[in-house]
Write a structure and sequence with these properties.
Elements: E1 5-7, E2 21-25, E3 35-46, E4 50-60, E5 67-68, E6 74-75, E7 77-86, E8 89-99, E9 112-120, E10 124-134, E11 142-150, E12 158-159, E13 163-170, E14 178-179, E15 182-186, E16 191-192, E17 198-206, H1 208-211, E18 217-226, E19 232-243, E20 247-255, E21 262-271, E22 277-287, H2 296-300, H3 315-323, H4 331-340, H5 346-358, H6 365-383, H7 394-402, E23 407-411, E24 420-427, E25 433-440, E26 450-454, H8 465-469, H9 492-497
Parallel strand pairs: 1-8, 16-22
Antiparallel strand pairs: 2-3, 3-4, 4-9, 5-6, 7-8, 7-10, 10-11, 12-17, 13-15, 13-17, 14-15, 17-20, 18-19, 18-21, 21-22, 23-24, 24-25, 25-26
Helix pairs in contact: 3-5, 6-7
Length: 500
């Protein structure tokens, strides 16, 4: 066991955090604050020492308690424990104290502090557990678990995890922040608000010298891909020639000033001389950029005479058709629909509807729409509730966005859990494999199953989902416990790991 003190300070500009692992806890003491900490990580390979994980932890300076220390200064103290388990075996472990800066007073705390660590881990599947608590606040640790896979075979070309970078500088004194002679300050979250106009990233490519041969040329491409459609954005594609080596570095950035709001993948691919992709990796990012939107004048200029959209002449019907597009619409399209459904005339809505389907199937937009409408009818029949249509429900949205699942495990009568369903997809259109959705309801009579957890990128991720299911038998059950209660007849983990 090793205890260490770490200190660093990081001025962070944004309070709105999404699609990150978020830890929050508080107690009932008058002086207590709600601790907010944000964790992300990347995996890398060192040819001399093997695979390792790099963790990035940021603590909101306004969410912690400050006490006077021996220097008569106010200081925060966060206790962190990280464990990496393979089954019942703890493969690596760390415990340390993360200290905030010393302050004369706490009237204007306007910073966050950040911690970065590296841990060696052999190839394999792990459960990554982090425990974190404010030492100046009398509260129990918050515990979070999530799966982790280390996969760096020696005879395959592998692209490391993609590290998002807040800022960087050249250095002659290597430290824990250093890669490729640069100190890289990590960008902890994958949310990019309007004020951030650069997307900077770092990755490494391994073993090209083994697979391609020494001194061979190959092509690396990196680009932004729209999550909903899977299409690469023409203005965000870069190509670089590389020469095979033990390690090739990808260190670059995109100007995202004009990137519309939406959900994207940052994709890195390695291609051979025949343009075949032999390795790839991607990371999810979310952009908020309200000033870049669908322009009304672009839609108004469309000619839709003699099209299927022109034949939809009932305004209420057309509005309902547009509403049901939400599960597959981009953020821009959702924004346009929200504004114009209430105010625009039928011609503008017809043109928007036509453009929507032209962008998905330029040759046969009507056929694409009718196929989708058939799926909407299915989810409306199966998942409608007394207060919402099927396409508005969580199950309906997932079905329309990803298609029918390959397997569904239904469990409505377990004695210790709320009724739940686990949907299993073998392969999604965006290439993700072996992905699950967990839905549950507190009242099966209403047919309203809410999404509780998914391991699909961009979806709600709650790796303590089983704890919520067990609140059925104990409404006061503490979901921050580290261990599930002993129960009889519980199958949720089995169905998640091995869906029926």
């Amino acid at each position: 066991m090793k205890d260490r003190n770490h200190y660093n300070q990081f001025n962070f500009l944004f309070a709105f955090i999404v699609f990150c692992l978020i830890f929050s806890f508080s107690n009932n003491a008058v002086q207590a604050k709600k601790l907010n900490a944000y964790l992300s990580y990347s995996t890398f390979f060192e040819p001399e020492s093997g695979p390792y994980i790099e963790t990035y932890l940021m603590v909101d300076g306004n969410s912690v308690n400050y006490l006077l220390n021996e220097n008569e200064k106010y200081q925060a103290s966060i206790q962190v424990i990280m464990l990496f388990k393979n089954g019942e075996d703890v493969v690596n472990y760390d415990k340390y104290e993360l200290l905030g800066p010393e302050l004369d007073d706490t009237l204007s705390v306007n910073f966050n502090f950040i911690d970065q660590q590296r841990y060696s881990l052999p190839n394999g599947s792990y459960e990554f557990e982090i425990q974190i608590w404010d030492k100046n606040n009398d509260t129990e640790p918050f515990v979070s678990l999530q799966p982790l896979v280390m996969n760096f075979p020696e005879k395959e070309v592998i692209i490391s995890g993609i590290q998002l970078v807040e800022s960087y500088s050249e250095t002659d004194n290597p430290g824990i922040l250093t890669k490729n002679n640069y100190d890289l300050l990590p960008y902890i979250i994958n949310y990019f608000p309007e004020q951030v106009n650069k997307l900077t990233f770092y990755a490494e490519i391994y073993n090209t010298h083994v697979v391609l041969g020494e001194g061979e040329k190959y092509l690396v491409s990196y680009y932004l891909e729209q999550l909903e459609s899977g299409n690469a954005l023409d203005n965000y594609i870069t190509y670089k020639k590389k020469t095979s080596a033990k390690v090739n570095v990808v260190f670059s950035e995109f100007d995202i000033t004009n990137l519309p709001s939406g959900n994207y993948f940052l994709v890195i691919e390695a291609r051979d001389k025949q343009n075949n992709t032999f390795s790839s990796n991607k990371i999810f990012i979310q952009r908020s950029n309200p000033r870049v939107s669908i322009k009304l004048e672009d839609i108004a200029s469309l000619n839709i005479e003699n099209t299927f959209a022109y034949r939809i002449t009932n305004l209420d019907t057309l509005k309902e058709y547009i509403r049901c597009l939400e599960p597959i619409a981009t953020a821009q399209e959702k924004g346009f629909a929200t504004v114009h459904l209430a105010s625009s005339d039928i011609e503008i809505l017809q043109k928007f509807f036509y453009m929507f389907w032209m962008q998905r199937n330029e040759l046969e937009p009507e056929r694409a729409w009718l196929a989708y409408l058939n799926e909407v009818d299915k989810v409306n029949y199966a998942y409608s509730t007394p207060i919402q249509k099927g396409y508005e429900s969580d199950r309906g949205r997932v079905y329309l966005k990803y298609g029918p699942p390959n397997a569904i495990s239904e469990s409505y009568n377990e004695p210790s859990t709320y009724p739940y369903e686990i949907w299993h997809y073998y392969v999604l259109e965006n290439g993700q494999r072996n992905k699950k959705f967990v839905f549950y309801t507190k009242d099966i009579a209403t047919n309203d199953f809410a999404l509780l957890h998914s391991d699909v990128t961009g979806e709600l991720s709650n790796y303590r989902w089983q704890y919520y299911l067990y609140q059925r038998v104990d409404a006061g059950f503490d979901i921050d416990r580290g261990v599930l209660p002993d129960t009889w007849g519980g199958n949720s983990k089995k169905y998640f790991d091995l869906p029926r």
